[in-house]
Every structure is written in structure tokens, then in C-alpha cells.
Amino acid sequence: MSEDTPRGVARNTSSYGDPGFSRYLRAAFLAGAGYDADDLSRPFVGIADLGSDYNPCHRLMPALVEQVKRGVLEAGGLPFVFPTISLHESFAAPTMLYRNLLAMETEEMVRAQPMDAVVLLGGCDKTVPAQLMAAASSEVPVVVDVVGSMTSGSFEGERLGACTDCRRFWARHRSGELDEGRIRAVESALVTTAGTCMVMGTASTMAAMAETLGMMLPGGATPPAPSGDRLRHGTLTGRRAVALARDPLLPREVMTRAAFENALVVLAATGGSTNAVIHLLAVARRAGVDLTLDDFDRVSRDTPLLLDLKPSGSQYMEDLHHAGGVPALLKVLESRLDLDHVGVGGTSLGQHLASVPPPGAWQTVVRTLDDPLGPPGALAVLRGSLAPDGAVIKASAATPGLLRHRGPALVFESPEDAARRLDDPDLEVTADHVLVMRNAGPVAAGMPEAGSLPIPRKLAEAGVRDMVRVSDARMSGTSYGTVVLHCCPESAAGGPLALVRDGDLVELDVPGRRIDLLVDADELAQRRAALPPFAVPPRGWRHLYATTVLPASQGADLDFL
Ligand code: FES
Ligand code: MG
């Protein structure tokens, strides 16, 4: 490229076999859109805009896009906003099925369109992981930013928010404690502003992961969506993207082994979402980092729970933000982190933390290593005859008395089967039963967040609040309970979950990291021989997905990506 050749506009111009013609044609269309040669001489910064009426979490995305554009312009770049699909947890189920579609789309649009750097703006649960996956496969610099979390609401004097409290109040409604009028009042108070769920659910967890991995500028994970802090961070992000366009630092150079090791420490200390396990495995695989389930367990065993946020604790994301955000947590964890790691901001973590004060004694969200909120092991990886390739439990959000439990299985064939039968007054179930659900893994169903099965109504009405539940599904990061998830191999891939029958004994031993089906091997072999094959969806995305998706234990990306 000569001195006066436009930068971004000149990228990927081989499609006509005549680079000069391609540039000329692009310049002609851009002239028609109001851009002159001076504009086109600037670095092109793509901005992925995930605004959508189907995504209320992203309602303030337009304002954030404007801030990023302003930052790009201030720094002498040329912003180009482009759309991708937008995924909201309540409107695009099962979102896990579409995470990979968004990741593929983002990767391809960043490759196909001219840009010297790109800002990926997400927020709601699957968007940030999909964008990090795309980033790991990108040949241009990427900066990730998020719309920010909601602020908390109030019901009868009690603070509340999406969606840990959504579940808690719904459970109270199911048990008859909260009548129709009051549950409708709760419904109006759970989501009080735009933004992502304001607990340490998947969205907050993945924002914290993006910041810790160094793919987001420091301080970006926690500013609430309606805040000026959020807007100013957008401006900084836009400015920084221009600097990266001029002096590239590629995502693969940022998302190193050290970056993931740091992320695992932070994940364990936050009591973050179990979904983050799958997402980080997927991102690492694309970044060429050999991360395994055992790495999560190793780091978690050694890292206490430090953040007092729901669902593992009691507070909300805005409280974490006021206490100093992710940098305050990183400061507490400083001795356990790789301080040489350099993120998109261009400085090492050590340099960054040198200017971060320790969290103040006035706040109670970010605890210290000497005074943690909970013991190590918030996330545990289990293995055993029911999950030879691994399963995951968020021990910090489980009932301590159930972490060692043996009980008879009550088996549900699918999430639909569970929904049909759980409220049946004649269901033969006791609080000692282990609720087992299958056909909810990636191959079978795109891995819906169905793993946190509701307590059967008759037990809920009798005051039972938690039971051991086991499945190949995921659960929402905002959920709680003694829920074993992501059993691998999944039932549709012939995993032992497919072989469980009502009454079989299942044994959970979280301290021993075991989940076992206490049925002898000969009997299981006979049952296996009688298993029908899984019916693959005949066409479309679901066919491509079901035939190429990797197990959850490897990140559930498509095998060819
Ligand atoms: Fe969007 Fe919870 S539904 S973050
Ligand atoms: Mg969620």
C-alpha cells in the first residue's frame, strides 16, 4: 500500500481480480454515501451494533454506538457501524444454539468488510462469548465493550433484580406464598432499566472475563447501562480502536495462556456463571490455548469466593461498580495473577494495577483473601460413571447439606417431559430423589438453560427449596441450587445419562468431585444395546449444528471452526 492509498477501504480488495477497480468501486459507493478522499485516508474502524427490538438488554445500544463513533472520530479514524444478529436470553431460545451462529457471522463479517480494527459491542449472555470467539479467529485488532448492567429495583421495600430474584419470587409464587397480584408487581420491578442482568449471571461473568482476558479496556465490565461512566468508556474504546488500527495488537496476542489463567482465577473468585466454563473453553480453543475442564477445577480449588454478588452472595453489579469494579477485584488477587499480561489497552496488568487502590473498607462487595465470602471451590468439575468426560456444579450456589447425597433417580426424557410432569400431584417424588433430565445437551437440543429444574410443585408447597438435579443441559448464570450440569458425553451422544431409569441410585459427592450411577456395568451394557439412535434434525442450521457441535467439555463450538 503506497503512502496515499486509503487504508481500510483498500483491505480485501481482490474480489474482482483487479485491486484498482475494487478500490475505485468502493470509493464510488462511499462517495455516494458522503465520504471524500480525506475520510477514506483514515483508519477504518468497524463497530458491531447488536441493537434489536428483540433484545431489551441492549435498548441503550444506540447511545453506546454513538459514543464509540465519537471516540473513533476524535482519534482520527472513520467509524463504520454494521449489524449482526442479536441474542437475548428470553427471546431467542435456546440461545446456545445461536451463539455459534453469531460467532461465525461476526468472524465472517469482520473478514469480509474493510476494517483496520473492530469494536464488538455486546452484553446479553451469549453475545460476548460469541464475539470473543470471533475475535480469537480475527486477523484485525478487536476491542470488546458491553452495554452494561441494569440497576436494581424494589418490591415491598426489598431490593431486587434480574434474574436471581426472578427465580426466587417465582418459586415463592409456585409454592403459593405469593399471590397473582403480588407476582405481577414483582414482574414490573425486576427489570427497571435497560442493560444486562445485574447479578453475577452469565452476562456479568463474561463481561468480567472479557476485561480480565484483556479484550476490553480496564473498568469496562461494571458501569451500569444508564450511567455516564458507561458512555465515557465507550468513547475511550473508540479512541483506543484507532490506536490499535495504527499499531496492531491481534486478539491472539492478547488471549494467551496467561490471559486465560488470570480469567480462571477471577471466575473462581466471582462465583461466576457455569456457562463461562463452556464459553472460555470455546474461546481458548480458537485462540490456540489448550484449556481443559481440569484447569477450571485446579484454579477453583485454590481460589476463595471474594465477590458478594447474587446468586452466590447478596449484592448487585452497581455495588461492584461503586466499589471499584473488576480492577478492585484484580487488585485483591494481584499476588495470584500474571502481571506481565498485556491487554488491548497496551499496558501490562501490573502497570495498570499500580494505579488501582485496594477496595475501600467502606464497601462489602469485594472481599479480601484474608476475609473471603466463601471457601475455595465455587465451581467444581465432577467426573464419574454418570459423566465420564466431566460435569460442572456451582457449589457456591448449592445447598451445603446436599453436596454429598445419594438418592433414587426420577428421570425426565427431555425439558418438555419435565415441564409436563413436574407439577403433577400424583408424581411419585420425595425430597431425597435426584431429578435426572436428558436430551438437553448440545446435539439433542442446542443445550437450553433447562438444567435448574423447578422443584416439583407438591414438594415446593411442602417447603422443599432445593433438590439434587442432574442433566446434560446448562442453567442460567443467575440460578442457584444443587444442580449438576453439562454431563458429558451428553445422552444424545450415547452418554450414560441416556441409561438411567427411575429408581436407580445416583450418588453426588462434590468434595470428592464425583457423580456416579450406582448400577452395575452388565446391566448398563444391556440397556445401551437397546438405545435408539438419535434422530438428527434433517435440514438447516440445526442440522449443521447437531452434526458438527463439539461436546460441552470442549466448548461446544462447531468442530470445523
Ligand atoms: Fe440479557 Fe440477562 S437476559 S443479560
Ligand atoms: Mg442468563
Question: Could you characterize what this model shows?
Answer:
InterPro entries: Dihydro-acid_dehy_C, DiOHA_6PGluconate_deHydtase_CS, ILV_EDD_C, ILV_EDD_N, IlvD/EDD_N, Sugar_Degrad_Dehydratases. This is Dihydroxyacid dehydratase. One of its GO terms (biological process) is branched-chain amino acid biosynthetic process. Belongs to the IlvD/Edd family. It comes from Geodermatophilus pulveris. 37% of the residues lie in helices and 13% in strands. The chain has 561 residues and is of the alpha/beta class. The N terminus is likely disordered. Strands 7-8-12-11-10-9-13-14 form an eight-stranded mixed sheet. A four-stranded parallel sheet has the order 2-1-3-4, with helices on both faces. A two-stranded antiparallel ribbon has the order 5-6. Helix 6 runs antiparallel to helix 7 and helix 8 packs antiparallel against helix 11. It is built from 21 helices and 14 strands. It folds into three domains: 270 residues, no CATH class; 35 residues, no CATH class; 154 residues, Glucose Oxidase, domain 1, CATH 3.50.30. FE2/S2 (inorganic) cluster (FES) binds next to loops.
Brief synopsis:
The chain has 561 residues and is an alpha/beta fold. Helix content is 37%, strand content 13%. The structure holds FE2/S2 (inorganic) cluster (FES) and magnesium ion (MG).
